[in-house]
């Protein structure tokens, strides 16, 4: 359904440090970069699906109230590692790893990146 996702940043080097530490625990690696953007993809994917960019209109990047990107995690341990890496690299807590009421196996953690964008890692497999 989704081709790719972009999040705005006001500091690409800071965002690169954060995402280079956080996304590999979910299987995504930086594949492209310039002064204006960084792109991440899963190993073997032919295109970047997750981009962090300086806004095209050159205005300051802002966050959307109610906006969030949820990323798939294979295992609950990956959710835990995502959360720990995010907090260790400038992210902030928006919800510790744990089961949520959405269904019996919805295990998630919520963080904000250094620009304030909200992210979640979710594992829906029973363990």
From TrEMBL:
Residue span, VOC domain: 1-124
SUPFAM superfamilies: Glyoxalase/Bleomycin resistance protein/Dihydroxybiphenyl dioxygenase (SSF54593)
Pfam families according to UniProt: Glyoxalase (PF00903)
UniProt cross-references to InterPro entries, sorted A to Z: Glyas_Bleomycin-R_OHBP_Dase (IPR029068), Glyas_Fos-R_dOase_dom (IPR004360), VOC_core (IPR037523)
PROSITE patterns assigned: VOC
Domain of life of the organism encoding this protein: Bacteria
PANTHER family (alphabetical): BLL2941 PROTEIN (PTHR35006:SF1), GLYOXALASE FAMILY PROTEIN (AFU_ORTHOLOGUE AFUA_5G14830) (PTHR35006)
The name this protein goes by in its record: VOC family protein
Naturally occurring in which organism (per UniProt): Rhizobium mayense
